[in-house]
């Protein structure tokens, strides 16, 4: 069995991540609710830089709050700081979008965003369209080989 801690991202949440690692926990999960908490990726980056073993995860990120290519880039950047220790949890945004006055995204949009992020993280060229219908051709700058996620 594995044990994890769930945190709200704050300016000092890295201290709890360090303590959890010292106590033998397997992971730390960070909430993502824009406008309520510190930016999840900033909090995770600080925790990644202060820990060496514990897994760090998002619980959960809504790709429509940060477009899929931006989310993929954030995860790739975190994976560069903490190789193999990053877990990306994704959702439709029932509460996370509600704080922004937006409705949750449809499962079809979530699936599309997951496919886009997987392809980008693998270093593939993708055709991406946002939820407003705008299409873009995106090629990750890291090239083929991706991040190892």
From TrEMBL:
Record EC number: 1.1.98.2
Name of the top EC class for this enzyme: oxidoreductase
InterPro entries named among the record's database cross-references: F420-G6PD/mer (IPR050564), Luciferase-like_dom (IPR011251), Luciferase-like_sf (IPR036661)
GO molecular function list: glucose-6-phosphate dehydrogenase (coenzyme F420) activity; oxidoreductase activity, acting on paired donors, with incorporation or reduction of molecular oxygen
One family name in Pfam for this protein: Bac_luciferase
SUPFAM superfamilies named among the record's database cross-references: Bacterial luciferase-like (SSF51679)
Keywords: Oxidoreductase
Domain of life: Bacteria
PANTHER family according to UniProt: 5,10-METHYLENETETRAHYDROMETHANOPTERIN REDUCTASE (PTHR43244:SF1), PTHR43244
Protein name (Swiss-Prot/TrEMBL): 5,10-methylenetetrahydromethanopterin reductase
Species this chain originates from: Mycolicibacterium fortuitum
């Amino acid at each position: 069995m594995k044990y994890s801690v769930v945190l709200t991202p704050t300016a000092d949440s890295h201290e709890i991540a360090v303590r959890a690692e010292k106590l033998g926990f397997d992971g730390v999960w960070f909430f993502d609710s824009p406008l309520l908490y510190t930016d999840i990726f900033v909090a995770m980056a600080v925790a990644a830089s202060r820990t060496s073993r514990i897994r760090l995860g998002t619980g959960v990120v809504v790709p429509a709050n940060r477009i899929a290519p931006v989310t993929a880039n954030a995860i790739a950047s975190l994976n560069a700081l903490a190789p193999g220790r990053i877990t990306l949890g994704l959702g439709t945004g029932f509460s996370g979008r509600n704080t922004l006055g937006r409705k949750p995204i449809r499962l079809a949009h979530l699936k599309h965003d997951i496919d886009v992020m997987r392809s980008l993280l693998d270093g593939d060229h993708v055709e991406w369209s946002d939820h407003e219908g705008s299409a873009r051709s995106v090629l990750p700058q890291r090239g083929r080989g991706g991040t190892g996620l």
